[in-house]
Write a structure and sequence with these properties.
175 residues, alpha/beta, Rossmann fold, five-stranded parallel sheet, 43% helix, globular
């Protein structure tokens, strides 16, 4: 496919499942935009700038990937970018029902409709979600292999900085 595709999400943090989708999507187009948004139904663990940094590190091997943040409706953002399609990953059947509704709504909101490309998640990552990875990491669990190694180091550095800040202001017992 010629042109530009959008892969949007909260990426809080980016996982190997996301990276697999990015790698595969980048092969389908001239330019892939990874759009990082705030998900109003979730409280973000990492600020947008940190999420952008993690994605940029994880995708540095891809020449045709741009990463930026946005707020508001995906359809409005897609219009501003002039993308040909939006790509979405499907892990389980429950994802399909939600994503199909979103695809229909985005097509309705985007003046001339917009295509949604559904890619099946690699089975090795079908159980992985940002929320689960973030929770396991915060509680001291091992997430090696679930996030890119550069992202894991970034997360560890952020966690160390948080602990130092907490210790300097006297907050104890925080994970």
């Amino acid at each position: 496919m010629k042109g530009k595709i959008l892969y949007a999400g909260s990426f809080d943090p980016i996982t190997n499942g996301h990276l697999d989708m990015i790698d595969r999507s980048a092969k389908l187009c001239d330019r892939l935009v990874v759009g990082v948004t705030e998900n109003l139904s979730k409280k973000a663990r990492y600020p947008v700038e940190d999420r952008l940094n993690m994605i940029r590190m994880a995708t540095s091997h891809l020449d045709n990937v741009d990463t930026e943040s946005f707020t508001g409706l995906l359809a409005d953002y897609a219009k501003r970018l002039g993308v040909e399609a939006v790509v979405r990953g499907l892990r389980v059947t429950m994802d399909f029902e939600y994503e199909l509704q979103m695809a229909h709504m985005n097509a309705r909101l985007y003046a001339n409709g917009i295509e949604t490309i559904f890619l099946m998640t690699n089975p090795a990552y079908s159980f992985v979600s940002s929320g689960l990875v973030s929770e396991v990491f915060t509680l001291g669990g091992d997430v090696d292999g679930l996030v890119p190694s550069s992202v894991l180091e970034y997360m560890k550095n952020l966690h160390r900085e948080e602990r130092r800040k907490d210790e300097s202001i006297g907050i104890a017992g925080r994970a």
